[in-house]
Amino acid sequence: MEIRFPCLGTFFSGTVKDLSEKNLFINSIICFPVGSTLEMIILSKKKVLTVPVKVKRVMNTDGIDKGMGVEVLNLPKEYLEIVIGLDLGCQP
Description:
Blueprint: E1 2-7, E2 10-19, E3 23-27, E4 37-43, E5 48-61, E6 64-72, H1 77-85
Antiparallel strand pairs: 1-2, 1-4, 2-3, 3-6, 4-5, 5-6
């Protein structure tokens, strides 16, 4: 799932690697400091959704950012519908 982060008049992109109801890990070469709150824009097949998140951890290797773990601050109904609607190969 593709996402965008608006910051300083531009958009940074990332790909959701892992997700749960309230948490996501996003592969991105641009990561924000732990504790940062920002708006994440989810680009789904059916709609564009803005979701507030807080950075909980940043993963880097040899000083190069690889991604960040974020927590969803407010769970919009549409977010849950997108997460539930993803085909992750899981059986109910």
